[in-house]
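[stage:ingest] chain + small molecule (magnesium ion)
[stage:ingest] validated
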Amino acid sequence: MAKEKRYKKPDLPISTVKGLDVGTAFIYSAQKAGSEVAFREERNAFFDIEHSDFTEEMFKKSNVKYALKGNRLYIVGEEAIKFANLFGKNTRRPLRDGVISPGEEDALLIIELLIKSIVGAPRSKKERVYYSVPGPPIDANFDIIYHQNIIGRFLENSGYSAKPINEGLAVIFSELAKDNFTGIGISLGGGMVNICFAVMATPVFSFSVARAGDWIDEQVARVTNETVSKITAIKEANLNLDLAKTTLSDKIYDAFYIYHNHLIEYILEQIKNEFGKHPTPKLDKPLPIAVAGGTAKPKGFLQMFKEGLQKTKLPFEIGEVKLASHPLLSVVKGALIAGIAETR
Ligand SMILES: Nc1ncnc2c1ncn2[C@@H]1O[C@H](COP(=O)(O)OP(=O)(O)OP(=O)(O)O)[C@@H](O)[C@H]1O
Ligand SMILES: [Mg+2]
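[stage:predict] done
[stage:export] C-alpha coordinates:
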Protein backbone atom coordinates (compact mmCIF):
# COMPACT_ATOMS: atom_id res chain seq x y z
CA MET A 1 0.00 0.00 0.00
CA ALA A 2 1.22 3.50 -0.77
CA LYS A 3 2.07 5.47 2.36
CA GLU A 4 0.20 8.72 2.95
CA LYS A 5 1.52 11.74 4.85
CA ARG A 6 -0.20 15.05 5.55
CA TYR A 7 1.34 18.41 6.37
CA LYS A 8 -0.42 21.68 7.28
CA LYS A 9 -0.24 24.21 4.45
CA PRO A 10 -3.10 26.70 4.98
CA ASP A 11 -1.39 29.40 2.86
CA LEU A 12 -1.93 27.40 -0.35
CA PRO A 13 -5.33 28.05 -1.92
CA ILE A 14 -7.71 25.16 -2.55
CA SER A 15 -7.24 24.04 -6.11
CA THR A 16 -8.01 21.01 -8.17
CA VAL A 17 -4.58 20.31 -9.49
CA LYS A 18 -2.19 17.53 -8.50
CA GLY A 19 1.60 17.22 -8.34
CA LEU A 20 3.47 14.07 -9.38
CA ASP A 21 7.15 13.17 -9.03
CA VAL A 22 8.18 10.02 -10.90
CA GLY A 23 11.67 9.43 -9.53
CA THR A 24 14.22 6.65 -10.00
CA ALA A 25 13.82 5.54 -6.39
CA PHE A 26 10.38 6.81 -5.33
CA ILE A 27 7.15 8.04 -6.88
CA TYR A 28 5.12 10.72 -5.07
CA SER A 29 1.86 12.56 -5.55
CA ALA A 30 0.59 15.68 -3.77
CA GLN A 31 -2.79 17.34 -3.59
CA LYS A 32 -4.46 19.95 -1.45
CA ALA A 33 -6.86 18.48 1.14
CA GLY A 34 -8.52 21.18 3.25
CA SER A 35 -5.81 23.15 5.03
CA GLU A 36 -3.28 20.38 4.46
CA VAL A 37 -1.31 18.89 1.60
CA ALA A 38 -1.71 15.13 1.30
CA PHE A 39 1.32 13.27 -0.04
CA ARG A 40 1.34 9.67 -1.24
CA GLU A 41 4.58 7.77 -1.77
CA GLU A 42 5.64 4.43 -3.21
CA ARG A 43 8.95 2.75 -4.05
CA ASN A 44 9.55 2.68 -7.78
CA ALA A 45 10.52 -0.98 -7.75
CA PHE A 46 9.08 -4.43 -8.39
CA PHE A 47 9.87 -8.11 -8.02
CA ASP A 48 8.42 -11.10 -9.85
CA ILE A 49 7.56 -14.56 -8.56
CA GLU A 50 5.76 -17.53 -10.03
CA HIS A 51 1.97 -17.21 -10.04
CA SER A 52 -0.23 -19.40 -7.89
CA ASP A 53 -3.94 -18.85 -7.21
CA PHE A 54 -3.29 -19.15 -3.50
CA THR A 55 -0.57 -16.44 -3.47
CA GLU A 56 -2.70 -14.13 -5.58
CA GLU A 57 -5.57 -14.60 -3.13
CA MET A 58 -3.21 -13.71 -0.25
CA PHE A 59 -2.06 -10.58 -2.08
CA LYS A 60 -5.66 -9.48 -2.61
CA LYS A 61 -6.50 -10.00 1.08
CA SER A 62 -3.42 -8.11 2.27
CA ASN A 63 -3.77 -5.24 -0.23
CA VAL A 64 -0.40 -6.00 -1.84
CA LYS A 65 -0.03 -4.05 -5.08
CA TYR A 66 0.61 -6.50 -7.91
CA ALA A 67 0.28 -7.11 -11.63
CA LEU A 68 -0.16 -10.37 -13.50
CA LYS A 69 1.77 -11.18 -16.65
CA GLY A 70 1.76 -14.71 -18.09
CA ASN A 71 2.45 -17.02 -15.18
CA ARG A 72 4.36 -14.37 -13.19
CA LEU A 73 3.09 -12.21 -10.32
CA TYR A 74 4.74 -8.80 -10.19
CA ILE A 75 4.85 -7.36 -6.66
CA VAL A 76 5.03 -3.61 -6.95
CA GLY A 77 6.27 -0.88 -4.57
CA GLU A 78 7.60 -1.17 -1.00
CA GLU A 79 6.44 -4.79 -0.72
CA ALA A 80 8.81 -5.73 -3.59
CA ILE A 81 11.79 -4.98 -1.33
CA LYS A 82 10.54 -7.41 1.32
CA PHE A 83 10.14 -10.17 -1.27
CA ALA A 84 13.51 -9.45 -2.90
CA ASN A 85 15.23 -9.64 0.51
CA LEU A 86 13.40 -12.90 1.23
CA PHE A 87 14.93 -14.42 -1.92
CA GLY A 88 18.32 -12.70 -1.38
CA LYS A 89 17.96 -10.83 -4.68
CA ASN A 90 17.72 -7.21 -5.82
CA THR A 91 14.43 -5.63 -6.90
CA ARG A 92 13.84 -4.73 -10.55
CA ARG A 93 13.61 -1.01 -11.29
CA PRO A 94 11.48 0.67 -14.02
CA LEU A 95 13.71 3.76 -14.09
CA ARG A 96 17.44 4.11 -14.38
CA ASP A 97 19.39 7.41 -14.25
CA GLY A 98 16.15 9.41 -13.92
CA VAL A 99 14.39 8.06 -17.01
CA ILE A 100 12.49 4.92 -18.12
CA SER A 101 15.07 2.15 -18.12
CA PRO A 102 15.82 0.95 -21.69
CA GLY A 103 17.06 -2.38 -20.31
CA GLU A 104 13.90 -3.21 -18.33
CA GLU A 105 11.35 -4.89 -20.61
CA ASP A 106 8.50 -4.55 -18.10
CA ALA A 107 9.21 -0.92 -17.16
CA LEU A 108 6.13 0.56 -18.87
CA LEU A 109 3.70 -1.97 -17.37
CA ILE A 110 4.90 -1.16 -13.85
CA ILE A 111 5.15 2.61 -14.25
CA GLU A 112 1.62 2.84 -15.59
CA LEU A 113 0.30 0.81 -12.67
CA LEU A 114 2.25 2.90 -10.14
CA ILE A 115 1.14 6.21 -11.65
CA LYS A 116 -2.52 5.14 -11.67
CA SER A 117 -2.43 3.99 -8.07
CA ILE A 118 -0.52 7.03 -6.76
CA VAL A 119 -2.48 9.83 -8.49
CA GLY A 120 -5.86 8.06 -8.42
CA ALA A 121 -8.72 9.15 -10.65
CA PRO A 122 -9.19 12.79 -11.74
CA ARG A 123 -11.54 14.74 -9.43
CA SER A 124 -12.81 16.83 -12.34
CA LYS A 125 -12.82 16.50 -16.12
CA LYS A 126 -9.26 16.94 -17.47
CA GLU A 127 -7.91 17.78 -14.00
CA ARG A 128 -4.36 19.09 -14.33
CA VAL A 129 -1.33 17.16 -13.11
CA TYR A 130 2.07 18.81 -13.04
CA TYR A 131 4.70 16.07 -13.26
CA SER A 132 8.43 16.48 -12.74
CA VAL A 133 10.91 15.65 -15.50
CA PRO A 134 14.69 15.75 -15.42
CA GLY A 135 16.72 18.36 -17.26
CA PRO A 136 18.96 17.34 -20.16
CA PRO A 137 21.84 15.20 -18.88
CA ILE A 138 25.27 16.71 -19.50
CA ASP A 139 27.35 13.63 -18.77
CA ALA A 140 25.32 10.83 -20.37
CA ASN A 141 24.34 10.00 -23.90
CA PHE A 142 20.52 10.08 -23.76
CA ASP A 143 17.70 12.60 -23.81
CA ILE A 144 14.51 12.88 -21.78
CA ILE A 145 12.02 13.23 -24.67
CA TYR A 146 10.77 9.63 -24.63
CA HIS A 147 10.44 9.58 -20.83
CA GLN A 148 8.54 12.89 -20.73
CA ASN A 149 6.12 11.81 -23.47
CA ILE A 150 5.37 8.37 -22.03
CA ILE A 151 4.60 9.69 -18.52
CA GLY A 152 2.45 12.44 -20.08
CA ARG A 153 0.58 9.86 -22.16
CA PHE A 154 -0.14 7.59 -19.16
CA LEU A 155 -1.63 10.58 -17.32
CA GLU A 156 -3.69 11.72 -20.31
CA ASN A 157 -4.97 8.14 -20.78
CA SER A 158 -6.22 8.26 -17.18
CA GLY A 159 -8.25 11.39 -17.97
CA TYR A 160 -5.82 14.08 -16.80
CA SER A 161 -4.39 17.08 -18.56
CA ALA A 162 -0.64 16.59 -17.98
CA LYS A 163 2.04 19.28 -17.84
CA PRO A 164 5.76 18.62 -17.30
CA ILE A 165 7.85 20.75 -14.95
CA ASN A 166 11.62 20.62 -14.63
CA GLU A 167 12.69 18.90 -11.39
CA GLY A 168 15.17 21.63 -10.34
CA LEU A 169 12.55 24.32 -11.02
CA ALA A 170 10.11 22.39 -8.83
CA VAL A 171 12.60 22.73 -5.93
CA ILE A 172 12.65 26.50 -6.55
CA PHE A 173 8.83 26.61 -6.45
CA SER A 174 8.85 24.65 -3.22
CA GLU A 175 11.73 26.28 -1.32
CA LEU A 176 12.43 29.77 -2.71
CA ALA A 177 9.03 31.52 -2.54
CA LYS A 178 10.30 34.26 -0.23
CA ASP A 179 13.17 34.92 -2.68
CA ASN A 180 10.67 35.58 -5.48
CA PHE A 181 11.47 32.16 -6.97
CA THR A 182 14.95 33.39 -7.87
CA GLY A 183 17.96 31.21 -7.19
CA ILE A 184 19.37 27.75 -7.76
CA GLY A 185 17.32 24.63 -7.03
CA ILE A 186 19.12 21.32 -6.73
CA SER A 187 17.40 17.94 -6.39
CA LEU A 188 19.79 15.14 -5.42
CA GLY A 189 17.84 11.97 -6.10
CA GLY A 190 18.54 8.29 -6.66
CA GLY A 191 19.49 8.28 -10.35
CA MET A 192 20.25 11.92 -11.05
CA VAL A 193 21.08 15.31 -9.69
CA ASN A 194 18.92 18.03 -11.26
CA ILE A 195 19.97 21.65 -11.24
CA CYS A 196 17.99 24.73 -12.30
CA PHE A 197 18.85 28.41 -12.19
CA ALA A 198 15.73 30.59 -12.38
CA VAL A 199 14.92 34.27 -12.10
CA MET A 200 11.37 35.00 -10.94
CA ALA A 201 10.30 31.43 -11.68
CA THR A 202 11.68 31.67 -15.23
CA PRO A 203 14.34 29.04 -15.88
CA VAL A 204 17.56 30.52 -17.27
CA PHE A 205 19.13 27.09 -17.63
CA SER A 206 18.66 23.61 -16.23
CA PHE A 207 20.59 20.39 -16.58
CA SER A 208 21.14 17.06 -14.87
CA VAL A 209 24.02 14.75 -14.10
CA ALA A 210 23.47 11.00 -14.22
CA ARG A 211 25.17 10.37 -10.88
CA ALA A 212 23.42 10.47 -7.51
CA GLY A 213 22.33 8.17 -4.65
CA ASP A 214 22.39 4.94 -6.70
CA TRP A 215 25.88 5.80 -7.90
CA ILE A 216 27.06 6.34 -4.30
CA ASP A 217 25.56 2.98 -3.25
CA GLU A 218 27.19 1.15 -6.17
CA GLN A 219 30.61 2.65 -5.47
CA VAL A 220 30.44 2.01 -1.71
CA ALA A 221 29.25 -1.60 -2.33
CA ARG A 222 32.12 -2.19 -4.76
CA VAL A 223 34.92 -0.94 -2.49
CA THR A 224 33.55 -2.66 0.61
CA ASN A 225 32.58 -5.88 -1.16
CA GLU A 226 28.97 -5.71 0.09
CA THR A 227 25.68 -5.98 -1.82
CA VAL A 228 24.13 -2.75 -3.09
CA SER A 229 20.85 -3.42 -1.23
CA LYS A 230 22.69 -3.81 2.09
CA ILE A 231 24.57 -0.55 1.51
CA THR A 232 21.35 1.30 0.58
CA ALA A 233 19.63 0.00 3.71
CA ILE A 234 22.52 1.16 5.96
CA LYS A 235 22.56 4.58 4.29
CA GLU A 236 18.81 5.16 4.61
CA ALA A 237 18.62 3.88 8.20
CA ASN A 238 21.34 5.85 9.93
CA LEU A 239 24.01 7.56 7.86
CA ASN A 240 25.49 10.56 9.66
CA LEU A 241 28.07 12.27 7.44
CA ASP A 242 29.35 14.36 10.39
CA LEU A 243 30.37 11.17 12.17
CA ALA A 244 31.45 9.42 8.95
CA LYS A 245 34.06 12.16 8.47
CA THR A 246 35.89 11.08 11.60
CA THR A 247 35.04 7.37 11.82
CA LEU A 248 38.06 6.24 9.82
CA SER A 249 38.01 2.78 11.39
CA ASP A 250 34.66 1.89 9.73
CA LYS A 251 35.21 0.99 6.10
CA ILE A 252 31.59 1.47 5.01
CA TYR A 253 31.12 4.89 6.66
CA ASP A 254 34.50 6.01 5.39
CA ALA A 255 33.46 5.10 1.83
CA PHE A 256 30.11 6.91 2.26
CA TYR A 257 31.96 10.06 3.28
CA ILE A 258 34.41 9.85 0.36
CA TYR A 259 31.73 9.32 -2.30
CA HIS A 260 29.32 11.98 -0.96
CA ASN A 261 32.21 14.41 -0.95
CA HIS A 262 33.18 13.43 -4.48
CA LEU A 263 29.59 13.82 -5.71
CA ILE A 264 29.29 17.31 -4.19
CA GLU A 265 32.58 18.44 -5.76
CA TYR A 266 31.52 16.97 -9.10
CA ILE A 267 28.14 18.75 -9.12
CA LEU A 268 29.63 22.10 -8.10
CA GLU A 269 32.21 21.80 -10.86
CA GLN A 270 29.40 21.14 -13.39
CA ILE A 271 27.44 24.17 -12.11
CA LYS A 272 30.57 26.32 -12.50
CA ASN A 273 31.06 25.04 -16.08
CA GLU A 274 27.41 25.70 -16.96
CA PHE A 275 27.51 29.28 -15.63
CA GLY A 276 30.68 29.72 -17.71
CA LYS A 277 28.63 28.98 -20.87
CA HIS A 278 26.08 31.72 -20.10
CA PRO A 279 26.53 35.46 -19.51
CA THR A 280 27.34 36.15 -15.84
CA PRO A 281 23.99 36.98 -14.21
CA LYS A 282 23.63 40.60 -13.12
CA LEU A 283 21.62 40.39 -9.93
CA ASP A 284 20.79 42.86 -7.22
CA LYS A 285 20.97 40.25 -4.46
CA PRO A 286 23.19 37.24 -3.64
CA LEU A 287 21.72 34.05 -5.15
CA PRO A 288 20.11 31.62 -2.69
CA ILE A 289 20.61 27.88 -3.20
CA ALA A 290 18.05 25.26 -2.11
CA VAL A 291 19.01 21.60 -1.93
CA ALA A 292 16.49 18.76 -1.78
CA GLY A 293 16.10 15.07 -2.65
CA GLY A 294 16.84 11.91 -0.66
CA THR A 295 20.58 12.12 -1.22
CA ALA A 296 20.63 15.46 0.65
CA LYS A 297 18.89 13.85 3.64
CA PRO A 298 21.72 12.38 5.74
CA LYS A 299 22.79 14.43 8.75
CA GLY A 300 25.82 16.53 7.90
CA PHE A 301 25.07 16.75 4.17
CA LEU A 302 24.29 20.49 4.16
CA GLN A 303 27.52 21.27 6.03
CA MET A 304 29.51 19.20 3.50
CA PHE A 305 27.77 21.02 0.67
CA LYS A 306 28.61 24.42 2.18
CA GLU A 307 32.26 23.38 2.57
CA GLY A 308 32.25 22.34 -1.10
CA LEU A 309 30.88 25.76 -2.06
CA GLN A 310 33.73 27.46 -0.23
CA LYS A 311 36.26 25.47 -2.24
CA THR A 312 34.59 25.98 -5.66
CA LYS A 313 34.69 29.55 -6.87
CA LEU A 314 31.26 30.15 -8.46
CA PRO A 315 30.94 33.29 -10.61
CA PHE A 316 28.28 34.98 -8.46
CA GLU A 317 27.67 35.92 -4.84
CA ILE A 318 25.93 33.19 -2.90
CA GLY A 319 23.09 33.99 -0.49
CA GLU A 320 21.41 31.59 1.90
CA VAL A 321 22.12 27.89 1.32
CA LYS A 322 19.28 25.83 2.68
CA LEU A 323 18.05 22.28 2.90
CA ALA A 324 14.37 21.58 2.17
CA SER A 325 12.40 20.86 5.35
CA HIS A 326 11.17 17.59 3.78
CA PRO A 327 13.88 16.73 1.23
CA LEU A 328 12.05 13.74 -0.30
CA LEU A 329 8.80 15.68 -0.81
CA SER A 330 10.21 18.96 -2.09
CA VAL A 331 9.92 18.16 -5.82
CA VAL A 332 6.32 16.95 -5.70
CA LYS A 333 5.34 19.87 -3.48
CA GLY A 334 6.99 22.25 -5.97
CA ALA A 335 5.12 20.62 -8.87
CA LEU A 336 1.84 21.13 -6.97
CA ILE A 337 2.67 24.79 -6.17
CA ALA A 338 3.61 25.48 -9.80
CA GLY A 339 0.31 23.90 -10.86
CA ILE A 340 -1.70 25.99 -8.38
CA ALA A 341 0.14 29.18 -9.41
CA GLU A 342 -0.41 28.60 -13.13
CA THR A 343 -4.04 27.53 -12.97
CA ARG A 344 -5.24 30.41 -10.74
N1 LIG B 1 16.98 8.78 5.04
C1 LIG B 1 17.80 8.75 3.97
N2 LIG B 1 19.14 8.95 4.13
C2 LIG B 1 19.95 8.88 3.07
N3 LIG B 1 19.56 8.65 1.81
C3 LIG B 1 18.25 8.45 1.61
C4 LIG B 1 17.30 8.49 2.66
N4 LIG B 1 16.08 8.24 2.15
C5 LIG B 1 16.26 8.05 0.82
N5 LIG B 1 17.56 8.17 0.51
C6 LIG B 1 18.17 8.04 -0.82
O1 LIG B 1 17.69 9.09 -1.63
C7 LIG B 1 17.58 8.63 -2.99
C8 LIG B 1 16.16 8.83 -3.45
O2 LIG B 1 15.86 10.19 -3.34
P1 LIG B 1 14.66 10.83 -4.19
O3 LIG B 1 13.38 10.22 -3.78
O4 LIG B 1 14.81 12.30 -4.06
O5 LIG B 1 15.07 10.34 -5.64
P2 LIG B 1 14.15 10.07 -6.91
O6 LIG B 1 13.35 11.29 -7.16
O7 LIG B 1 13.41 8.80 -6.74
O8 LIG B 1 15.26 9.88 -8.05
P3 LIG B 1 15.67 10.80 -9.30
O9 LIG B 1 15.24 12.20 -8.99
O10 LIG B 1 17.13 10.66 -9.40
O11 LIG B 1 14.96 10.19 -10.45
C9 LIG B 1 17.96 7.17 -2.99
O12 LIG B 1 19.32 7.05 -3.37
C10 LIG B 1 17.76 6.77 -1.53
O13 LIG B 1 18.59 5.67 -1.16
MG1 LIG C 1 13.78 13.11 -8.00
